Amino acid sequence: MSTALRCPFLSRIPVNQVKKTASQLMSYAERCPVMVHAMSYMNGPDMMTVTDEPLEKQCPFFAKEGLTVSDVKSHISSLKDVAPKTEKTAPTADMPVAKATAAEATVTAPKYPSGISVEKTLEKIKLWGKGAEEEMKVKVEEEVQEKEATEAQQPKLFDYEDFFGAQIDRKKSDHTYRVFKKVMRRGREFPYAEDHSTGKKRDITVWCSNDYLGMSWHPKVMNAVSEALKNHGAGAGGTRNISGNSPLHEGLEAEIASLHEKEAALVFTSCYVANDTSLCTLGQTIPGVHMFSDAGNHASLIQGIRNSRVPKHIFRHNDPLHLEELLRKVDSGTPKIVVFETVHSMTGDISPLSELCDVAHKYGALTFVDEVHAVGLYGDQGAGVGQRDGCMDKIDIISGTLGKAFGNVGGYIASTSRTVDMIRSYGSGFIFTTSLPPTTLAGARASIQVLRGEEGKHLREKHQSNVRYLRQNLIEAGIPAIHSPSHIIPIHVGDAALCTHLSAELMNKHDIYVQAINYPTVARGSERLRVAPTPHHTKAMMDYFVSSVIRVWSDNGLELSRERSVCPDECEVCNKPLGIQILQAEEKVCGRSNCTYASLQDIFFTDNRRAVAMA
Ligand SMILES: Cc1ncc(COP(=O)(O)O)c(C=O)c1O
């Protein structure tokens, strides 16, 4: 049986470390009065020796307290006859010294909170030795209170881990926490893919890919990528300025400039970076410029405008009249930039491009137009809505992506030579980053070339006809597919948890992958499933998709109603009431070309004509 005392040093060292260094520690034992005392108990009274060396050589703590040799001796001898209560304890980091050195010794000792002074420890040793356990417990409690009070007075340091945890919990509690699906697309067999999200492989079909035309696995694209890899390696090797520029970069930029009928183009590592960098650079360099931003703009456009720190005016989504109202208020000599998208990524709206540009130019503004969801997909050569609508020249600066319809990765702007050169020369997000690798440059160029030609036209036609077929069948089945004039078919759900649940059921029960889109990608209350059929989805696949959605809708007690309109009640521009009956009417909803929904009628007319012709 042995008495144990806590060492103010060892109690702070993890027990494993104490064990590892036990032999070295033991060599100091003779210099430590506590260890000497403990060993004397293990070895019998004859062995009890206390060195007469000056105390400061024995233990810096005891020395600091000004204890004398006789203090220690009398203390140790007073301990000799006192045996504290014993019980088995598991080894811990703050285990008493005696126990750390003698594995069999088992003792009960009050736990001392770390960070308590040596002075207090000494006092405790004395009290313990005299068997004053109760008194000692009180002392320990007092110390804890004292320590807590001191801590409360000290300025509290920011707890980063706590903060991050709370932010994540917030997301989890409102069902906006994102758990990514693990999906391996099957190259040439796309839209077939494998889901690996549950750890078990499952064959699925993908319905929400932005590889809209399947160009990521087009043979010509894959061949260009593999040739570039073989000939030039995997990486670019540097920024454009330092060893990262090549004929492949300049060739791709020339191809993009030609596609958009502009003098020059500049590629970036993504279109997020292209938008952010270009708008920020324009804002920071044009003196006194004001930005006019569409209310529905993508995060990259918002971020670029925000980073530029210039005055910002937000006009109602796709509303040239409101844009004009705002432009009129700013001095005519003030430089201005109007920023908007053509195809809206989440609603599938297409902006009244020509009208918005006309209004902007009337007030001396530049137009910065994001055609990310349109390039490759609209227009004779796939240059976007500007080409489709015959108004490419009204776009002063166009931005596009190489990562969606072009099937690669990266982004770009195209404009006049001076505009591009200015952004090239001042844009931080362009200058200070490794340039795109040869594989991507070659793959993207091959993809643009395919889509500019006959094959591209054919793919675009097939794409649009699949979109029409699927949308029409969903609407007819009473699924709330939002009417949109583009290739994006949003299915309205309106609740984050339900949206996630429906997406999971489609995957788990029907092997269909369609992503739930929740806040912040869309406003709360407008949560949706975003469906993007490609030219490679067959009619049979689309029929299966519709029947699966119907099944999931019914299984979850959701209403299937052709009458339930998910259109806005009225047109945002002309304020005429909208609804499926009006959209299907022979008479045009609105004569204005900038009416967002007038174009929907064209779709219905085309569908009806097709249906009649096929009957
Ligand atoms: C409208 C819009 N602009 C820009 C981007 C960014 O493009 P990238 O994916 O090339 O960064 C996106 C991406 O989804 C987008 O939807």
TrEMBL record:
| Record carries keyword Acyltransferase | yes
UniProtKB keywords: Acyltransferase, Heme biosynthesis, Pyridoxal phosphate, Transferase
- What positions does the domain 5-aminolevulinate synthase presequence occupy? 5-78
Q: In which pathway does it act?
A: Porphyrin-containing compound metabolism; protoporphyrin-IX biosynthesis; 5-aminolevulinate from glycine: step 1/1
Q: What catalytic activity is recorded?
A: succinyl-CoA + glycine + H(+) = 5-aminolevulinate + CO2 + CoA
Q: Which InterPro entries match?
A: 4pyrrol_synth_NH2levulA_synth, 5aminolev_synth_preseq, Aminotransferase_I/II_large, AON_synthase_class-II, PyrdxlP-dep_Trfase, PyrdxlP-dep_Trfase_major, PyrdxlP-dep_Trfase_small
User: Some GO term, biological process aspect, for this entry: which one?
Assistant: protoporphyrinogen IX biosynthetic process
Q: Spell out the Gene3D superfamilies in the cross-references.
A: Aspartate Aminotransferase, domain 1 (3.90.1150.10), Type I PLP-dependent aspartate aminotransferase-like (Major domain) (3.40.640.10)
Q: Which residues form the Aminotransferase class I/classII large domain?
A: 203-548
Q: Which NCBIfam families match?
A: 5aminolev_synth
| Protein name, UniProt field | 5-aminolevulinate synthase
Q: Which organism is it from?
A: Magallana gigas (Pacific oyster)
